[in-house]
Each structure stands twice: as C-alpha cells, then as structure tokens.
Design brief:
With about 90 residues, this protein is of the alpha+beta class. The chain has a single domain (about 1-90), classed as SH3 type barrels (Roll). The chain has one helix and six strands.
C-alpha cells in the first residue's frame, strides 16, 4: 500500500500533463491542417518566413502566392502559417 501511495503523484501527473500540454497542441495542429486543406485562390496568407501574399494557385502540395506585382512564389502548403482576413491574422478555423 505504501508503494501505491508513493507512485500516486506520478500517476496523477500523466493526465494533467496530457490535458495541459499535449491535448491543446493536438487541437491546434488539427485546426492548422484544416486551414491548409481549405486554402483557395484569393486567400490572403502569411508564411512561416513572414511573407504576406495572396494565393493565386493551389496544387496538392504546392501553393503559389503573389507577394508583389508580377512576383509569384511557390511554397509547400506547410509553409503557410496564417490566413489573413480583414487585416487580422487568423490561425486556422
């Protein structure tokens, strides 16, 4: 019985760790993946590197954005960090 009592704090830490750290990260990752899957032409985006642009083409794994007049950049979908709506950054919906 003493052994169980000494392991009780460790047993309680695991679910606390799950709900405070791991679960929110999973939810965030799923929201971001959903946002990437729903990218379409005309969306305003911000990349992981900080480039702001407008989506002009979407392929299976490649997104083409325009960052200036006549300047197009091809990116992998995972390089898109945020959608931009009304001047505000939206991190996945």
């Amino acid at each position: 019985m003493e052994i169980l009592g000494s392991f009780m704090p460790l047993i309680l830490i695991i679910p606390i760790f799950w709900f405070l750290i791991l679960r929110p990260e999973q939810v965030k990752r799923k929201k971001h993946q959903k946002m990437l899957d729903n990218l379409s032409k005309g969306d305003q985006v911000v990349t992981n590197g900080g480039l702001h642009g407008k989506v002009v083409g979407v392929d299976k794994d490649i997104v083409v954005i325009t960052i200036a007049e006549g300047v197009k950049v091809e990116l992998t979908r995972s390089a898109v960090a945020f959608l931009k709506k009304g001047g505000e950054l939206i991190e996945g919906e």
